[in-house]
Amino acid sequence: MPKFEKHIFVCGNQRPPGNPRGCCDPTGQAKLQKLFKQKLAERGLKSKVRANQSGCLDQCEHGPNIVVYPEAVWYGHVTEADVDEIIESHIAASRAPDASRGLPQYGNVRTSGEQWSVISGRWSEGSKTRIGY
User: Fold this and answer.
1) In this structure, how many other beta carbons lie within 10 angstroms of the beta carbon of residue 22?
2) DSSP state of 81
3) Could you tell me the residue ranges of all domains in the chain?
4) Phi, psi angles (nearest 5°) of residue 49
5) Does pLDDT of 33 surpass 80?
6) Residues 25, 15 contacting (CB under 8 angstroms)
7) Which residue, 12, 120, 123, 128, could crosslink 114 as a Cys pair with Cβ 3.0–4.6 Å?
């Protein structure tokens, strides 16, 4: 059996509405994971990259979350609009965000509430969050 080069784990945890920790998949329909699978197939990456629905990744406050292995790169506040960019800039290009550029390590969020955006490469309020390396 051929080995996958990368695995994308998409948190599918559900919590009741109004839970203070948040919820990664409030509808329980796995829309984000299904979209990753669709976009990977469209790019011919289905045999190289697997997009799995996961249980709770315990980063609910940053959700919806995904983590890409083997690099162990975490993305938070991921929306369907981010899927193409993540696949294009990280998965298809086979390059993880560069730690030497000063990207924050796991759980590193500025106390002001600003978060690092992998997509734009800058700190901003409410952006997609790179929450691990």
Assistant:
1) 17
2) G
3) 6-132
4) -130, 130
5) yes
6) no
7) 123
